Amino acid sequence: MAQYTKHPVAAPPTAPERESTGHLLLRGYAIVVFFVAFAHTAIYNLVGQFGAGIVMILLTLAALAIGVPMLARAQPHPFPWRRLPWSALGYVCFAILSVAWSQWRGPTILTWLLLAAVTVNALLIAHAFSWHEIVRALASAFKWILGLSLALELWVSLALRGPLLPNFATLPTGDLDPHWYWVRDNLLDGGRIQGIVGNSNVLAIICLFAIVTFGVQWALHARWHTTLALWMLLAAFLMLRASSATTYVCAIAAAVVLAVALLIRRTRTPGARTRIYVTCGASVAVVVAAVIVFHKPLFEALGRSADLTGRTDVIWTKVLERAATHPVFGNGFSSPWIPTDPSFDGWITDHGITVFHAHNMWLDVLMQLGVVGVLLMAAAYFGLLWRAWFFAADRPRWDLRADRPYSPLTLLPLLFTVILLVQGLAESTPIMLWGWLMLVLFSFKIKSVPLVGVGLSEQSRVTERGQTARRIP
To answer: Residues with Cβ < 8 Å from 270, sequence gap 6 or more?
Structure first.
């Protein structure tokens, strides 16, 4: 029970400022956007292709309905036009320009609309929310995905007692390839699970993102530590059961970068930082060389084939052949590929299913938008990595004081970026949907709010009385 003094000099207690209903609804909108972006395959498996498209259209219309009045009123704070992620936006513009020379104009227009929708939502979330609110929204979305994944796996194993097809189809499943299933009923037999996203690799990487997010919340001394620890255990359990070699490598890379960032934070002189940079750079070079030389036994130890499950011998070879036909400007934007389009239908197949991306973000961009697209994408990711590193490694400072404490939150964009870049070597998801959402969101947020808790977007919110109240980070 709250206690306060009755001394006549002391001011009477006041209730904390309450957020307006509109701001609470805005938070709910952000959680829905994160959920739909990360669990897009779940939406697809639930309501089909057209239903998933309608969901994205509704989210984009909601973003415009929220964002346009906000820009017109300049509330809760002016829009930082000069801080926009121009490299990423340049890629978006170049993608739509590729309609002029695209070899598949229909997929280019369709997938560009998806790219634009994700970009608009990312910009709005970065502008409308503080760093702490973004982390809270991410954590809430991940909790929904993890909880529903466990519930669906349990329902399939205990109630349905058999594999589940997309859209809850009731076709005979005995002769179908397991890759067609939404959930394969592997929770109790020790096999790889898929969760609501219907893909083991996607479920595993989402679990890794969730562990990073929950870990940051834990370090921020969030309430309900026991509950947060249980969510972290669930994420770790699902990640292990999904058994994705790519995710394991991403986790190792994130752990190494985290260790280096923490070491940098403990240094007191520029010389000490230089020694750490040189040592870590040399170590990374040795590790990369060892992986290149001994990749076959390493992949076998991880339970994967030396050709990365058909990537190098089949997928990457065909993608490079098509990229060579238009090396400068590419063949036309399409992320993801549209399997029903004649240009992709049956071009590259895996277990009888048409592949919808190159399983390497750089090769995918090279085929679609050529060398120019690769340069734009490299500029976007390099800019994010550069800013995210110093966002995490540098002590917060805006005046002569140089002893302010670090915030654990500043590590989150760096770890997310490292995970995306490492995953991009074996997947193309970092250039579409949630990968692109994270790229645009963090690029814009770090540029516009480089200090957690400092700035208009960090310190103001609209309350029930229509006034501006100070937010405590």
So the answer is: none
Q: Are strands 353-354 and 468-470 parallel, antiparallel or unpaired?
A: unpaired
pLDDT (tens digit, 9 = 90+) per residue, 49-82?
788 888 888 888 888 888 777 776 665 567 788 8
CA distance 68 to 66: 6
Using only C-alpha atoms, the chain has a radius of gyration, in whole angstroms, of 23
Among 12-21, 147-156, 320-329, name the one with the lowest average pLDDT.
Answer: 12-21
Contact 331, 368 (CB under 8 A): yes
Tell whether pTM > 0.85: yes
DSSP code per residue over 420-449: HHHHTTT-SGGGSHHHHHHHHHHHHHHHH-
| C-alpha separations of 112 from 95, 258, 375, 377, 421 in Å | 7, 34, 19, 15, 22
**Residue 467 confidence (pLDDT):** 38
Query: Which pLDDT belongs to residue 254?
Result: 95
* Beta-carbon-side half-sphere exposure of residue 181 (alpha carbons within 13 Å): 21
| CB 119 within 8 Å of CB 92 | yes
- The first and second tokens of residue 371, run together, are 């060398």
Q: Which residues pair with 463 in a beta bridge?
A: 19
Q: Which of 224, 214, 272, 251 is nearest to 408 (CA)?
A: 214
Q: What is the rounded distance in angstroms from the CA atom of residue 118 to the CA atom of residue 123?
A: 9
Which pLDDT value is given to residue 473? 37
Average pLDDT over residues 313-336: 91
